[in-house]
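Action item from last week, closing it out:
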Amino acid sequence: MRRLLAVGAAVVVALAASATPVQAHGRDSYRKVGYFTQWGIYGRNFPLARVQTSGAAARLTHLNYAFSDVTADGVCASADPWADWQTPFPAADSVDGVADQAGQPLAGNLNQLAELKKKNPRLRVLISLGGWTLSAHFSDAAATPAARRKLVSSCVDLWLRGDLPGLAPGVAAGIFDGIDLDWEWPGSDGNAGNAIRPEDKQNFTALAAEFRRQLDGLGRHYDLTAFLPAAPAKIEAGFQADKIFKYLDFGTVQGYDFHGSWEPRTNQQSALRVPAGAPDDPDFSITTTIDAWLSRGAPRRQLVLGIPYYGQGWTGVSGGLFGTATGPAPGTFAAGTEDWKVLKHLSAQGYALHRDWRSGFAYLYDGTTFWTYDDPVQILQKTAYIRTKGLGGAMMWSLDGDDSSATLTKTVSAGLWTPW
């Protein structure tokens, strides 16, 4: 059976690589949401042009641009104006193949997003607010009706009406098709120093309602989505799962970082089910996370499963899976994490590839260093899970972890393809 699954997966991966954009989209009955990181244009050298030329853009239904700041004054603001609308791109890094010129009305990533939408008119682009490092003031900005109105109005003006500071009014209008709330996390710990209130749970619902009210007053439909946690304790502390989807088009559920190099022993970071012999009880998995949301009243078709394009790694490992480690494995940009486009080459460098088909995860181990990650085979297992559970689609963090052929994104698209 495992051999048949592996052979079948290889066939679908091959089809994913050769599928045309029209084939990959099908009827778009599933959402395929890719995050593009604002800072990826720097050390990673990943401009939006790569999303176009790799074929990824043609396979996505939504692209989330991460992140906008929510400031101490309770308003939306750019976290990096140079990246967002100032930096000029040469022809080789421009979506339309034309170099930016001095004095043009808009440059930076926002102009590239506009070019990407021209080439992919079905693609919906959302601005993501917050994230791990920019959620410090979300609780304050959601604490009262007046604060919520102020925050939402500022986000609408800046990102949807396109009134960027220092530029002509409306210069960036029409680029974003909605807003993604990445408050990490209402009612429970996130990054150190975040404001937290017991009433964050109710205030998140009220904030979503205020966003929906103001968005609906703009004369067209704007999407409203949210990034949602995996841990049942965080769900319980911060989200009224039976109420928020009245206002959200869908929510993307964290399907990764269940374990990582901050822990002293190796483990899975994104398994479908808790592996046999796992040392933690209770433990995290995709199934426990999705079931936690469903049991609290979340609609299946509005849950979009998050898939990582990176792995978690340990070194100084004794014992392989669940073995003790001396610390995080070296990574290109941060210790303990590495992009799939790098990890995919490790099997040819002395690492043994292991798969747990029942639990739905893979890992690489060379006797010293251990990486747990998702590859095309595991992604196909997850797209089958999405179909079986009746979920709304897949979300990918983040597009810069894929290879130059967008192999992972094409695999997601093929796995969720719906025939005409």
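Closing note: Residues 22-27 have pLDDT under 50 and may be disordered.
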